[in-house]
Amino acid sequence: MIDLRSDTVTQPSQEMRRAMAAADVGDDVFGEDPTVNALEQRAATLLGKDAGLFVVSGTMGNLVSMLAHLGRGFELIAGAGTHVVDGEAGGHAVVVGASARAIRVGPDGTIDPAAIDRAFRDPSDVHEPVTGLVVLENTHNLTMGQPLTPSYTAEVAAIAHLRGVPLHVDGARLFNAAVALGVPARDLCDPADSVTFCLSKSLACPVGSVVVGTREFIATARRARKLVGGGMRQAGILAAAGLVALQPGPGGMIARLADDHANARRLAQGLAGLPGVIELEPHRVRTNFVIFGLAGRESRGASVTSRAAFLAGLATRGIQMIEYPNGLVRAVTHYGVSEVDIDTVLTAAREVLSELRPRSVMSAAATS
User: Would you say 267 and 331 are in contact if contact means Cβ atoms under 8 Å apart?
Assistant: First the structure.
């Protein structure tokens, strides 16, 4: 099976498994797990912040950050379609008690800074919620994993800070952005008041994310983690994999992200040349996401190539991709997917499209 549904399907490396088996552990709620403490400090140092907090997921990382930053009845500003708005079961409203003001995102993954500035509520108007947080997503999923630059992040942070509001970066794939841009990850975090990143996505760990920020912020986020049931005990068994992932050099998982990006570009270039694949611009593949449409996708009217049939055809050949909003298909490269695997996927995609097209063309002719 070549599974391109997400980078969450990665399997831990053998070094991670050995580290997990041998991890020195304690009760993390008491602050006594040395491996968790080491991971939190490593993450904070790597990203240029004071302290870190190990959480079970990126969703929990964003949730405890919002709980730490926002009061009930406040509002956050974020891009339309971003994970905190659309992908976390409404946690900002259900748990935090905050509304979200969603702004259109451009094809490069950015929100117009002027639009962010205009989105702030009038704090003197009792009819409006109080703006309490700005959230950016880096990389930005729906725009094919676009990385947000340090200069853009700093520009948004300046707007937020001028208004007396913090900036939170949902950096689920922050290290993909850093590798794609060729900058240290801390440069993407410097302007932000809090950042969360996932260990369990492209860094290939089995579980976990880390939130970083000031010591005061992390203390508040730690209380929020307890509130939502995220207090773990001998969590060093999980944190040990994170320490392996964040180590420098070939033993870690950061530098090798460039391989995932190269494989994504190879996949995009190959798919773009196949009949029936449309709306795929390979030059836009910056990280490990490939998002594309098929001819006649749902939003374009009459179906010539069925997305469901395409995915089913791949699945019979041991390849998995996933449906994406607006009738699109998503493929994500990751640890465990090789250049040879990409070539296998392209061969299979060519076969499936070849099988589907005659059937689809005849169907279209019959209804014309």
Answer: yes
